[in-house]
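Hypothesis: this fold can be encoded by more than one sequence.
Test: take the structure tokens below, design a sequence, compare later.
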């Protein structure tokens, strides 16, 4: 885990990773490298890499450095970046939930699904940053990085037999 200049932890979060994924996709669609975006914005390569990796807090200068590839999506992504520190995400089933699940499956180092009990869940073990617990509700997908929830999920998953 890296630390900010003030010494506080800086980690990729789920919301931060989603913003970063979108920024990276827009940069790649524009056919630009990180260095080219940095040169156009007079920002640093590290600023753009930070945003694309999903590290929070996503600072205003970091988003400004990405502006050349964001175009008319800048305002929406800037707003999303300001919510990147929030530990919960609820989204309706469809494109958004699929995008989140695809991202988690692509980056997690381990996935544990507990399908029995009163509150089934899937625990995504993340390589850096907080783990994520996913609950499937009838009308929405619910994701949380809350320490209490992830610790409880990890405890339950660890207590199950290996073939569960």
């Amino acid at each position: 885990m890296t630390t900010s200049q003030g010494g506080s932890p800086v980690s990729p979060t789920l919301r931060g990773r989603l913003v970063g994924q979108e920024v990276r996709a827009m940069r790649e669609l524009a056919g630009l490298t990180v260095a080219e975006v940095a040169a156009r914005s007079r920002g640093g390569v590290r600023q753009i890499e930070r945003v694309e990796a999903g590290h929070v807090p996503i600072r205003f200068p970091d988003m400004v450095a990405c502006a050349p590839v964001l175009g008319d999506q800048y305002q929406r992504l800037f707003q999303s970046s300001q919510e990147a520190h929030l530990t919960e995400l609820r989204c309706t089933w469809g494109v958004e939930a699929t995008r989140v699940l695809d991202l988690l499956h692509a980056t997690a180092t381990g996935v544990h699904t507990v399908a029995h009990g009163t509150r089934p869940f899937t625990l995504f073990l993340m390589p850096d940053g907080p783990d994520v617990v996913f609950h499937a509700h009838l009308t929405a997908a619910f994701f949380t990085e809350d320490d209490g929830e992830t610790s409880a999920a990890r405890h339950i998953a660890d207590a199950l037999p290996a073939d569960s």
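The longest strand covers residues 88-92. Confidence is low (pLDDT under 50) at residues 1-9.
Hypothesis status: open.
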